[in-house]
TrEMBL record:
Gene from which this protein is expressed: hda
Organism of this sequence: Anaerobiospirillum thomasii
Matches recorded under SUPFAM superfamilies: P-loop containing nucleoside triphosphate hydrolases (SSF52540)
InterPro entries tied to this protein: AAA+_ATPase, Hda_lid, P-loop_NTPase
GO biological process: DNA replication initiation; negative regulation of DNA-templated DNA replication initiation
Pfam family of the protein (one): Hda_lid
Record-given protein name: DnaA-homolog protein hda
Domain AAA+ ATPase: residue ranges: 43-158
Length: 235
């Protein structure tokens, strides 16, 4: 694929260890299946996914990116919350077959980045390549871009709210993440953690990692008394 007159793409923010097997969809089965089908069929459509921080939208599109074979050649991933600290020239590329742009609202009110992303979006639209996945913390029409036509562009495709996991789903997701780390978390233990952290997954995952390390060091099973002993007032 020629990149003239644009530079080669640099991928920012894609964690190679994140997979779809570790994504617990909860009530987001339709969204997940729609995204997977879009990649499989290479449908030329934009998919705007929005949710509050900690809801799993970055996990989802990173896992989708990592699911693509030969992704270095076939897919582009950029977390704009990282790119915005560098240069808008990072967006000066030709579209890839599959495009992933995380945290598009990070460029809000930054005119050079807005212009660069607007131009990239238009190139993607004109090229007629495969799907474009975009995430933000709020819906496309709510982002206070300086370029209001950017709101229009982002709202032209399919829009999905990523539904936050309820307490039951959070507990199951925590059990899944424990299995991915090589140990078993009893359902009642997972439920205990969720109730004490208001079902906020990033905090729960951090706690899970602390408990995993402590259980290995002390050769103890992760139980509710053990959690109280290790975390104390942190819960």
């Amino acid at each position: 694929m020629s990149t003239t007159p644009y530079q080669d793409a640099l991928h920012f923010g894609a964690n190679d260890s994140i997979t779809l097997s570790s994504f617990y969809e909860g009530q987001n089965t339709l969204l997940l299946e729609t995204c997977k089908k879009a990649i499989a069929t290479m449908r030329h459509e934009s998919y705007f996914i929005f949710a509050p921080p900690g809801s799993g939208k970055t996990h989802l599109i990173t896992a989708l990116f990592n699911s693509i074979e030969n992704r270095a050649e076939k897919a582009f991933f950029m977390d704009l919350s990282i790119a915005v600290k560098l240069s808008p020239a990072l967006l000066n590329i030709n579209p890839y077959p599959v495009m992933f742009v995380d945290n598009v609202d990070a460029i809000c009110a930054k005119s050079e980045f807005e212009d660069a992303f607007f131009a990239l979006y238009n190139r993607w639209f004109d090229y007629g390549t495969g799907p474009l996945f975009i995430t933000a913390v709020e819906s496309a029409d709510s982002i206070a871009f300086l370029r209001r036509d950017l709101n229009t562009r982002l709202g032209n495709g399919l829009t999905f709210p990523l539904l936050r996991l309820n307490e039951e789903d959070c507990a199951r997701a925590l059990e899944l993440k424990a299995i991915m780390r090589g140990f078993t978390l009893a359902p009642k233990v997972a439920q205990y953690l969720v109730r004490h952290k208001n079902a906020y997954m990033p905090a729960l995952v951090d706690i899970l990692d602390r408990l995993d390390l402590a259980s290995l060091q002390r050769q103890r099973e992760i139980t509710i008394p053990f959690i109280k002993e290790i975390l104390g007032t942190d819960l």
